[in-house]
Design brief:
With 364 residues, the protein is mainly α. It has one domain (3-360). It contains 17 helices and no strands. Helix 4 (45-58) crosses helix 11 (217-240), helix 6 packs antiparallel against helix 7 (111-118) and helix 14 crosses helix 17. It is globular, with a radius of gyration of 21 Å. The relative contact order is 0.17.
Length: 364
Amino acid sequence: MNETTKKQGRDYGLDLMRVLMTVFVVGIHVLQKGGMYGVCRDAYPRRGFVVMGLFFAVTCAVNGFALISGYVGINSKYRLSRAAGLYFTVSFYNIVIPIVFHFYRGYEITDTVKLRALFPFAYDANWYFTAYLGMFFLVPFLNAAIKHLERRQVYTALGAILVFFSVIPTVLYMFFDEGFDKNFFKLSSGYSTLWLSVLYLAGAAVREYDLFRKVPRLAALGCYIAATCAGTVFIWLGYYKSDIPIEPLSNYLSPLVVLQALSLLIFFRELKLPAFLCKVIGFLAPHSFSIYIIHTQDAVWIMWLASRYAERTQTTFTAMLPVMFLFYTLSLFGLSLAADLPLHYAMKLPKLITKRKDKGRPEV
């Protein structure tokens, strides 16, 4: 670990992964809600292969966030103020953004919109926050379980979790779709507190028992790339060449998607980074959650993002699709970041004022 990381007591490699996962989340929504994925997939197979590859490359974002939470949380002090801060952020944007879009584009502020501001965990619009909040209250118990297990028990438990929570649901979904309960084990295809808790345990176990330490960093990156390529090929073949629904392979529960996220965790943890890059990452990382909340707001979702990129990508050259995808993703990321800056600095202002007062006091 480099000197900057040591001095700050932070793993900037994990912060970099957190920023990357945020970019991935934005990318998923650019492809799906923005219209790129459907339009290009339905055009012809070559364009479909490109967008399927882009989608599979970023689909591990939520799993990555949950693994990071466990990896960091196992040795972190449990503070309810953390949940309170997230709650305030969600409620703030659930109030401000609908008001802005009400005057900007006539967005209707219904009773549901009003209640969402007070109870953001009670509505599907904030599903990740809801699932994370439920997991957050379980964290002390999850940490205690990990710290009191033997290494053999860890391997056995993680193996069982992978088989019963990932492999079996994915296989059943693919080959026995008719009559299969997609809410298997109440996992809700990964959109649930239970799934985030499972991944939290996995990330915590990796940290506590120093798992996969002997795996070379480049091998982990190669594993992510291989899983991405394999998933892309399978999904492409399933959509164009077969009646078997291969799309469950891109589900959060998919073993390939879990492997992607775990590979990135192994690659990024304790990654040595130059000092200037640590400063950039240190600036971006605290905005990750807010960027997610801002660009997935119902008003933004319906009145700004929906099918926004479909027409532009429908006629462009196939080779330009990755470039356009990157441009749209980083643009939406940047706009959401800029929108969060006022709240971010407003919340830091009381601490800055307190520090200045303390500096101005004479020493006794």
